[in-house]
Amino acid sequence: MIIEHVTYKALPNTSTDDLQQANEAINTFLKRQPGFIYRSNSQDEGLYYDVAYWASEEAAKGASEAFMQSEEGQRLIALTEEGSVSMRHMLVLTDAMQCETADAAS
To answer: SS3 of 29, please?
Structure first.
């Protein structure tokens, strides 16, 4: 399993609504990609973080290439500060998951 970690800054004056809509479109796009497992998007002090899990490095790289060619990808790229993007692919060494809700645990 591979973790894809991407950080970027939004262009000045980019609205939260524009970013949310672009990221919702990215979620839909990613769900169509072979080997996609999970994605989260967060923000802290002006820096955005995307974390995605992929079944393999080939799946992660293939999705990255498809992203660059896609309408959804271009929409997010248009909101991103040039030169601020950093992307890494890392092999998962260990993982754990808790899938129960608080109601189910009581």
So the answer is: helix
Q: Are 60 and 54 in contact (CB under 8 A)?
A: yes
Number of domains in the chain: 1
Specify the pTM: 0.85
| 48-95 confidence digits (pLDDT tens) | 999 999 999 999 999 999 999 999 999 999 999 999 999 999 999 998
Q: Using DSSP, state whether 33 is helix, strand or coil.
A: coil
DSSP per-residue string spanning 46-64: TEEEEEEEES-HHHHHHHH
Angstrom distance (rounded) from CA 27 to CA 24: 5
Domain CATH code at residue 23:
3.30.70.100
Which range of residues forms the domain containing residue 49? 2-105
Tell me the three state secondary structure of residue 14: coil
- Give per-residue pLDDT as tens, 27-51: 999 999 999 999 999 999 889 999 9
**Integer Cα distance of 46 and 72 in angstroms:** 22
